[in-house]
User: Which sequence fits this backbone?
């Protein structure tokens, strides 16, 4: 298949801002209350970041954060400014928690 024959992008990744195509099946599932990761993100790595940034900080462990931060987004993409700000906030929160644990 030629690139120009590919269907037009109809969604934007909520993590990196990349335009991508969401298939009709994912859209139909969402209308039935089933939320596919492809509705939010263009790749699994972005979806891991999406989940992390939509989780309450108190429930995130250092190991989870480190795992997600070790993932490389495809094609050298980067999280959007808003998402990076949330990640920085989580990192700061975890550093403060670690600091408080050491003081006890």
Assistant:
């Amino acid at each position: 298949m030629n690139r120009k024959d590919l269907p037009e992008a109809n969604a934007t990744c909520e993590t990196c801002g990349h335009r991508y195509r969401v298939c009709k099946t994912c859209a139909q599932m969402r209308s039935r209350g089933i939320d596919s990761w492809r509705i939010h993100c263009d790749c699994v790595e972005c979806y891991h970041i999406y989940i992390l940034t939509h989780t309450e900080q108190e429930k995130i462990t250092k190991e989870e954060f480190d795992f997600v931060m070790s993932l490389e987004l495809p094609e050298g993409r980067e999280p959007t400014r808003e998402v990076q700000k949330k990640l920085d906030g989580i990192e700061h929160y975890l550093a403060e928690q670690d600091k408080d644990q050491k003081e006890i």
Summary: Strands lie at 11-12, 19-20.
